[in-house]
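Give me C-alpha cells for this 305-residue protein.
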Amino acid sequence: MGRRRPRPPLPQREGLDAVRVRTPARVGDQPAAWATLDAFLRDRLPARVPVDAWLAAGRFVDAAGHPIAPGTPYAPATTLWFHKDPPTDPLPPDLDVLFRDDRIVVVDKPHFLATIPRGEHVNASALVALRRQLGLQDLAPAHRLDRLTAGVLLFTIRPEHRAAYQALFATRTASKTYEALAPALPDLTTPTQVTSHIVKRRGSLQAEEVPDAEPNACTWVRLDAVRDGIGRYRLEPTTGRTHQLRVHLNGLGAPIVGDPLYPIVRAADDDPTDPLRLVARTLAFTDPIDGSAREFTSRAPLDWP
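Here you go.
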C-alpha cells in the first residue's frame, strides 16, 4: 500500500490533519533556486494563503513542530506543516454507525456527503464528521463512495490495521452490491454482464466509454422490480472505475434517477428532494485480521420518484 504518511507534528483541528509541504532538491533538471523558505512557500502555495503573515504568526512548522522563522534559508528535502484556516461549510448531522469494534467503524453514509475533505466539502465529509463524532483522530477510510452515492462505508481506527483493510478493496476481494432506480428495461436479460472501457478525463465532469477498447470495467446488472416504468436494479461491480455504475446503466439506456451528470450535465446544485437513486447496499468480506465473516447492510432509503 506504499509508505506510511509521516505523522504531523501538529495536532488535528476539528477533525482535520495539518497540511504537509515538502521542498524539492531540484526543479526539473535544475537545482532548486529559492533563497528562503518564504520564497518557496509564496511560489508553491495558492495566492490566497498569506504566507508572510502566517510565517510571522508561527503557523508554519518543521517536522519537529518548531515554527519556521521569516527569512529562514531554503533547505532541500525539508518537510513543512501548517493548518489551513477553519472550513466554513456546515457540519452534517451525526452519521448512522452500523458497526464498531476496536479496528473498524462502518457507517451508513447519506447522499451529498463526501467521503474525504475535498474542495469546498471539508466539514461536509464523512471522515471529518466521524472523527469529531467519535473522537478518533486516526480514523481513515478503507475505500470511498462518491459524494452523491449513499450507503455502507468502512473506516479503520488504527494506522497499523489500515493497509490490511484497504487491500480488500484494492484486490477486489470485498463483495459489494448496490441498488439503483432507473427506467425499466423490460427486455433486459437478467442478470446480464456489462463490460466496457471507461475513462475519466481531467477537466470533464463525465466519464465516458471508449468503443472497441479493451474492457476495464465490469458490472452485473439484475432488474428486481418495476413500478410505473421505473425499475429497481441490483448492481454487482467486479471493478471500480470512476462513475462505473452510472455509466453502465446510462449506456444500457437507463440513466439513474436523479443523476445530474448522465446522460447530460445539468445544474450542479444539491437538491435533497431529488438525490441520485443509488445506494451501496451491502458490503461483505473475510476479515483480514481474524478471518471472521463480515457483512453489513445499509438502511438508507431508495425512494421511488
